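User: Teach me something about this protein's shape.
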Amino acid sequence: MTTSTMTGVLDRLEAKELIRRSPAAGDRRAVEIWLTDAGCAMKKPLQSIIDDINHKALSGFSERQKERFLRVLDKVGDNLEQ
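Assistant: First, the predicted structure itself:
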């Protein structure tokens, strides 16, 4: 995700009062992002939706296949971060 895209996402979340931003202690270039009470209230229902999607997406896979698949996804994420 580009910096400008991330900034836009954070701007929208902040406008909805789901997050707040503050300068990071010790690094003037960085910003800390915090969930507000409203943001925290959304965490549990959203996690339930994510869990349901994951369950549907991985149904029919053996535990070994799920573990292998998740390791591959982790590696893809690592590659994208570089």
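Now, about its shape. The radius of gyration is 17 Å. The first helix runs from residue 3 to 15. If you'd like, I can walk through any region in more detail.
User: That's plenty for now, thanks!
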